Amino acid sequence: MFEIGKLLALGLSALGLTCASAQAGYPERPITIVVPYTPGGTVDLLARALGREMTKAWGSQIVIDNRPGAGGSAGAEIVAKAKPDGYTLLLSTNSPLTTNAALYPNLGYDPMKDFAPIVIAGENSMLLVAAKSFPPSTVAELIALAKQKPGALSAGTSGNGATTHLSLAAFNKLAGVDIVHVPYKGGVPSLTGAISGEVQVTFSDIVPAMPLVRDGRLKALGSTGARRAGVSPNIPTLSETGLAGFNIVASVPFVAPKGTPADIVATLNKETNRILNDPAFRQEIISLGIDPIGGTPAEAVAFLQSELPKWKQIVLDANVKIE
Amino acid sequence: MGLLENLALGFGEALTLQNLFYCFLGVTIGNFMGVIPGVGAVAAVSILLPVTYYVPPTAGLIMLAGLYYGAVYGAVTGAILLNIPHTVSAVECLDGYPMAQNGRAGVALFMTTIASLCGSLVGVVILAVCAPTVAEFALTFTSIEYFSLIVLGMTGAAVLARGSAIRSFSMVILGMIVGIVGTDVISGQPRFTFGFNHLSDGVSVGVIAMGLFGVAELMGSAGRPKPVLLESKTITWRSLMPTAEDWRRSWPAILRGVGVGSCLGLLPGGGAVLASIMGYTVEKQLARDPSRFGKGAIEGVVAPEAAANAACQTSFVPTLTLGIPTDPIMAVMLAALIMKGIAPGPSLIAEHPDIFWGLVASFIIGNVLLVIWHIPFIRIWVQLLTIPFHLLYPAVIVMICMGVYSIHSSATDVLLLLVFGGLGYGMRLLGFQPAPLLVGLVLGPLMEEHLRRSLIVSRGDFIVFFERPISVAVLTVSFLVLVLTFRKKNLPS
Questions:
Q1: What ipTM, to 2 d.p.?
Q2: Inter-chain contact B51–A73, Cβ cutoff 8 Å?
Q3: What is the per-residue pLDDT across B182-213, written as a single tens digit (0 to 9) for each?
Q4: Fewer CB in a 10 Å sphere around the end CB: N or C, chain B?
């Protein structure tokens, strides 16, 4: 039974019992990628897919360590304070590295100073959806209705301070409307809220919304990025359909603790880029809703530096401050 | 295609050697994770998730689903034997543990196995027969309906408790206060976290339940040396078997539990915990002699167990027919499908009948496997009670701490476990029940969230709760339950 053997090997490796094969240079023992979310989410699945490919290439195990809490900042703090030897890394959404700095007064780490970015693995857009029975079918019609009846419309999001909430805030500002924010506990309830008609529209991650859109239970008004998302090439962006200039995407940075030797960062960067360019892998993560990016560590640093003030401004506009 | 043909297709799929193996693997690991205090299905998933990359989608789904319901099956064991519950099995402590104390642990475990099987099978039938229609109806529920349902659940707290109503309500309030700890869903503000980032996600219900019931029990028994509960030689197969009286009392309770659980599981925001609380409430409310409850009434064990398992199976309905996951594990299942290029949602049944019906058939196989697994083990579990307390309990405490630590790899959780253990011990000494606290803890935050969301949507107008028919009906029932309970309690016994 080949399957059982494979399974046993996986089980053992999951317990961290296997030893890395002796090999010159980095990596010479298992690498831990901290994912600051519970198992099964988009970033977790990306980390596991990435880990699988790295293990294939290096023969050294990649262990995924889920450390949820405080909007991803609990896990980020662990990595910020880990030994910078390239064996503890962080893969998360941009939140712990950007928005949380604006949301929380005490993060326990400095998003800019405590990390050595390896690469931006990818980005993911969100989707603005509406109930089938809701009259507006385009974002232009939605804005017109919102202006006609100020304060009458409600929008669901996955939670206060989440990227979906910040998308709504940016939407309200750019369109000059005041759609009332209705936070839910997670993305799925915010979608059922739109289906039941409790809220008229919802900002959601694309992948969980897709089956409901395909089924005609919800209609997609547009995706939030500057480009159409790879997972839904037929859905236009909000910018295309009536709200020019709207561009909110979450990114997925891959970072090491500050002080990690540059050659280790370079090795990780090279390997991650190689994996991100593999067509089968690209397809796999696009189906998870992540559009692969890649690039050099310097580009990742520059990107994160440009993102921080942008998100701080959005948080400021959204008027959320966590005391 | 008729239902039978569909099921035939499903069994053809589920009975392949490979799928059978993964079904077995899922339920076995899930079951063991459920038995170990503190470890649950989520821990099992993170171990087995990588396997799903290497197997076909149906096999992966069958395994993940098996983990989920296998863990619910196993969860009751610790509650009955040692008063150490999982989140889903906390209510089973109330009468299951007294049964074990009376030397009837084997009977309790046997009957809960039967209750689980009945609950699960009925849940599967509902899933197979009327999944899409029912799911459609459940989707019309808004926060208003959820709020009313939770109010009904809250009135259950009054029923759950023995003795003084004031005391039990004060415990509900305390539970609600503990439930406030963490990030407020509506405003995003941390509340009662005292500056600890760790508390920003709240205190896990599982940790509190284990502290209040299990650790408190262990602390309580430390002071008074007890002999072993059972002598090895008294454990005969006969002593594990329920009597005719047990069967007579259990059957109707199981059926009612199944009914309650099946309905609640269908709601995207329902779930096994709410189902088991409601299952218990219904039994105690209907009982001719409610004073038996809390002292080892078998109805109080089988009804919540049947309800939890039925809810666990029917909660697959929204996941599979609408693509709306009702549990983190189901979200993982959907992700596993998506990665294989299969779109979850209503078209799943039509486009991939082999996957859908294969999964349904695997539920039936998995549940039968679990029963076959479980019954021989009952004797082994019961034998745990023959270990002298001074040896058993330290070992159990260590197990609980390890289990709790494994959930979030957090030492703070272990500390919280011990704090709530101390609190639970204090409550025992003062004659306060932990069950109502747990109800407040589970339902309080939900009630607040749905109330506040309803009010945001209605722009502050309370009348909405009396405008929607389901809400009005449920609120009326809650009111009646409350009145009846107070009348019963105030009657001289």
A1: 0.79
A2: no
A3: 888 888 788 888 877 778 778 888 888 888 88
A4: C
Cβ neighbours of residue A271 closer than 8 Å, sequence gap 6 or more: A54, A57, A58
Instruction: Give the SS3 label for residue A154.
Output: strand
Residue showing tokens 């995924």: A64
Q: Residue A204 forms beta bridges with which residues?
A: A127
B225 touches chain A (CB under 8 A): no
Domain A2-123+251-318 classification at class level? alpha beta
C-alpha angle with apex B203: B199 to B208, nearest 5 degrees? Answer: 145
Give the span between the Cα atoms of B398 and B400, in whole angstroms.
5
Chain B closest CA to A313's CA: distance in Å?
Answer: 18
- Distance of alpha carbon A290 from alpha carbon A99, whole angstroms: 19
* Residue A200 CA neighbour count, 13 Å, CB half: 20
Domain boundaries defined on chain B: 3-490
Distance, in Å, from the CA atom of B301 to the CA atom of B316, rounded to the nearest integer, reads: 24
Burial pattern B60-90, b for ≥16 Cβ within 10 A else e, equals bbbbbbbbbbbbbbbbbbbbbbbbbbbbbbb
Distance CA(B346)–CA(A214), nearest Å, equals: 9
- Across the interface, whether the CB atoms of A64 and B189 are under 8 A apart is answered no
Contact B265, B317 (CB under 8 A): yes
CATH architecture of A125-223: 3-Layer(aba) Sandwich (3.40)
pLDDT of B231 strictly over 70: no
Q: Do domains A2-123+251-318 and A125-223 have the same CATH topology?
A: yes
pTM of the model: 0.81
Distance CA B302, CA B96 (A): 9
Which pLDDT tens digit goes with each residue over B405-442? 877 777 888 999 999 999 999 998 898 888 888 888 88
Backbone angles phi and psi of A269, in degrees to 5 = -65, -45
Close Cβ partners of B219 (under 8 Å, ≥ 6 residues apart): B421, B422, B424, B425
Domain limits of chain A? 2-123+251-318, 125-223
Task: Report how far residue B477's alpha carbon sits from residue B156's, in angstroms, rounded to the nearest whole number.
Answer: 11
For strand A291-292 and strand A201-205, is the pairing parallel, antiparallel, or unpaired?
Answer: unpaired
